[in-house]
Protein 1
Amino acid sequence: GENVEQHPSTLSVQEGDSAVIKCTYSDSASNYFPWYKQELGKGPQLIIDIRSNVGEKKDQRIAVTLNKTAKHFSLHITETQPEDSAVYFCAASNGNTGTASKLTFGTGTRLQVTL
Amino acid sequence: NAGVTQTPKFRVLKTGQSMTLLCAQDMNHEYMYWYRQDPGMGLRLIHYSVGEGTTAKGEVPDGYNVSRLKKQNFLLGLESAAPSQTSVYFCASVARFSYNEQFFGPGTRLTVL
């Protein structure tokens, strides 16, 4: 089955700096890579995702890159703000619309943005 | 829309007791999932359902049972709770024609003494 590794487990940055979280996956058939943000006491919330037919996707201060050859993908947060402090999870799955597929999650990165 | 809701929010059980966790979604999603979240281990899939009346095992199904009698509800049961089942449980749902964009509930924190 799929195995997703995520690094680092904790990350502390100063407000305004950039943060990068990296994930690797093992199953070359995986084609969907979402990132979730989990605030304290809440469920994970999807913040951005990327499919295997693109190499990069950006949404305001958040971007995700995918390298299919190396089987790794990364989350980039620019101009970090205190409200970005949370636990971030990467995930991978192999599926298509109209079929149920299972997400395999990384172990999470606790991001702390300090003033 | 309330999205995905879970009840209860917190529960403490003694070893051997049973309980049922309820997940409800009002988005008319076909697929529903139960996960457990433990420190340092991310989210692990327990069971999932692709539609009313159907269920399937995930990565860590032992000690749990599920039922999907109505499309909007997905129940997770613990027949005889064990301390190893102390965890935070999350439910998620997915629309059939999405690419697996999962919407999560707020979680249930379960402690088994």
Protein 2
Amino acid sequence: DQQVKQNSPSLSVQEGRISILNCDYTNSMFDYFLWYKKYPAEGPTFLISISSIKDKNEDGRFTVFLNKSAKHLSLHIVPSQPGDSAVYFCAASEYGQNFVFGPGTRLSVLP
Amino acid sequence: GEEVAQTPKHLVRGEGQKAKLYCAPIKGHSYVFWYQQVLKNEFKFLISFQNENVFDETGMPKERFSAKCLPNSPCSLEIQATKLEDSAVYFCASSQSSGRNNQPQHFGDGTRLSIL
């Protein structure tokens, strides 16, 4: 049973608009969450993280929102750029150990 | 170095042969993690090290898989008597710390293992 789910395998967004990527988890003990971006033939690149003591973390165009009661987090990218086209992975961990990754969402930003 | 370096990029082995993958973590990072990604699906955690000590091996298959992180050497992941199902991309990641002092993991570009 998947502990971290990303129910949208793919998402297409127009350049300049907002991209919203969603992630749900089942383990209430998870307390640290990360988003990674992955291009083909490369390793995942760390984007942004959030600890369970917060409900929002912002870094430039990237904002992560955490809703602990719903066990849901989302990544907002605004404005979206063609270079943002990649696969985005959500990851969660308990005590910063044993990161569990979701299956990924492929984002396509259309010019 | 400033990046996690994994070698080789691609490794081809016949079924039953041994495969050995290497990972040099970012300088100053104490933790090393190995993941297996099959068919572009989710990353499966295999094992982690704190310096040269096994930190968590709950994801390691009980047979054929072993890993080491020795001082002054790249970490390694070895698969004995490879099977077709071992074909995957193996990613290594490193971080400065683990536990409550949360730090993100930084990944290498992976080694693609193809078992024929």
